[in-house]
Amino acid sequence: MQSLLDRKLLFITGKGGVGKTTMAATLGLLAAQEGRRTIVVEVGEQSRMAELFGAAPAPAGDETRLQERLSSISIDPNRALLEWLQALGGRVSGRLLASSGTFQYFAAAAPGAKELVSMVKIWQMTRAGRGRRSHDLVIVDAPATGHALGMLGSPQTFGAIARVGPIAGQTRHVEELLKDRARTAYVAVALATEMAVTEALELQAGLERQLDRELSAVIVNGLLPRRFSTAEMAQIAALEQNGVSREDARASGMSAGEGRTIAAAAARAARAVHERSRFQHNQLARLRRRSFEVLSAPFVWGEGIDLEAVQLLARQLARKL
Length: 321
Ligand SMILES: Nc1ncnc2c1ncn2[C@@H]1O[C@H](COP(=O)(O)OP(=O)(O)O)[C@@H](O)[C@H]1O
Ligand SMILES: [Mg+2]
Known about the structure:
Shape: elongated
CATH class of the largest domain: Alpha Beta
Number of helices: 13
Structural class: alpha/beta
Strand order of the largest sheet: 3-4-2-5-1-6-7-8
Strand content: 5-15%
Bound molecules: adenosine-5'-diphosphate, magnesium ion
Radius of gyration: 25 Å
CATH architecture of the largest domain: 3-Layer(aba) Sandwich
Largest sheet: 8 strands, mixed
Number of strands: 8
CATH topology of the largest domain: Rossmann fold
Number of domains: 2
Distance between the termini: 10 Å
């Protein structure tokens, strides 16, 4: 199978808060470490990438250098649409567009317009530009599933109406790129919960419907390790029921009653950890029955995800790619 990173475009989506941005950073780091010139595109008003890598963020629409071979850029779909309208209109001044409600009116009346101009920008990044080499890999940290499908469907929804300006020709290129298995891969990020897994499967269905495409991989994020074997769980159950022997309790400076209480509490805690991880692995099994690759990323303990955590995740993922 073609490696996930061996494409022009990786489109990452999934339910809100499941770790899309974290995985975009992780895959970006990995690709750059392997020698690919990589750019991570953040869609919307976020610019988390610069913060994560401790770089001074460039103004929206400009590339920020994160480290060797790795950069990021953020696309604001509203701004992208405004720029497109200005370029198209020429006569219509930017101020008029921004102030008169024309823009809002247009944005509301032309579904898919913002999404399509954003997709055109992304397509352009996969190609060499004026005086600039192309990136080897463009990773899109896309919005949550529904919105992401809106972006992917925009060549059909808006492309059909946009018959003027340069965008008419570009629409076809965007569509070709999105449909091309060799150049574009789709990755869903999911937590190992029933809802997130269901949403990943819905994404798969949406890709098939809209583009005749499929997910290349699902990354199950925040996975807890399986700590106990079946035999150990049997011992833990016995401990929960019987507590510890009087001798063992005394050896730890406790009365038999205290020993029983503490042993039962510890056993309950161990069982809770086990049950949670078992549930997660069952969700993983639900995904494994499908045709896409299933990768997992561990839960990283600490105060949120920092660069060190991303490096750790990249090392873990590298072994599975
Ligand atoms: N593997 C992980 N282990 C621990 N925390 C994580 C992990 N992945 C993401 N997080 C945390 O979960 C939250 C959401 O992650 P984020 O990547 O911003 O998700 P999204 O982009 O899908 O909204 C963040 O606070 C992030 O630090
Ligand atoms: Mg995000």
